[in-house]
Amino acid sequence: MKKPTKPMKLSDLALSEEQADVALMEPQATAEPEAAEAPPPADDPLNLEAVMRIPVTIQVVLGSASMQVANLMKLRRGAVVPLDHRVGEPVDVVVNGRIVARGEVVIVEDDNSRFGVSLTEIVGVQAKFEE
Q: What CATH number is attached to the domain comprising 110?
């Protein structure tokens, strides 16, 4: 589609009442649309290329706790907030707000100062295919 060389006004596109009546009375030519390139098959890996590059946020949830604001305001350095998960229970792996897996907290082999998660369960995959 060519771009106009000068800016157009909406009034330039409007038809007069007489021109509109003539246009309605003339038979419309039905030109066949240009043959569009067929979309690649659904199982074509190229369909997912753009999706695979989308960044997602991954969080590992050790647990959570609820408390009143008054108790929250009393927290000081060194205070311990007990969580609802117990030691040894799997942690939740959350992607964009949805639990996708569970796993065990581990120390990363290459860097002993970092934690990682060893996945033990993928959540919801079977349920998606069964629906």
A: 2.30.330.10
